[in-house]
Amino acid sequence: MPQSSERDDAPSTGSLDPLERLVVDVFVDGVKVLGLPRSIGEIYGLLFISPVPLALDDLVERLDISKGSASQGLRALKGLGAVREVELNGGRRTYFEPAVELKRLVGGFIREQVRPHIESGKQKIGKLAEVAAREQDPERREFLEERIERLDNWLRRGGVMLPLIQRLLGQ
């Protein structure tokens, strides 16, 4: 299989034309920034540029990825609301198409990735405050309490901003 001439770290591709490869690379770069697996960007990118819905086997073959990676990637993308299942001609195969509405993509990312981190962060800050309160050195305790308060403010502000962002996007 040919190697991508665009990047040395790119895996070989099954049957992507140059335009498809470029679009897939755009989404791979995007998911890297978000800390998501490369296969999620590859799958979404190919679905995004495909004029027709694709089945799991199509994604495996065209992207030259394992069935497990494709299945896991589709599951994650469905959880984010970034892809949806469609039926074609009453067949037994499940096909997928991308959700292309920005509000849906951002809303899904906030719901599935950001909110859980904010919630777990709140719990961790409570534990940090308990530990800091037991600090014997008054200077260190004051320093720790100031930093914990700063973290708490960041999380509260993030919690306030998320609904505003979702409203802005029409969620």
From TrEMBL:
SUPFAM superfamilies: Winged helix' DNA-binding domain
GO molecular function: DNA binding
InterPro entries, per database record: HTH-GbsR_regulator, MJ1563, WH-like_DNA-bd_sf, WH_DNA-bd_sf
Entry keyword Transcription: yes
UniProt keyword annotations, A-Z: DNA-binding, Transcription, Transcription regulation
Record has rRNA processing as a keyword: no
Family recorded in the similarity comment: Belongs to the GbsR family.
Name this polypeptide is given: HTH-type transcriptional regulator
Taxonomic source organism: Luteolibacter ambystomatis
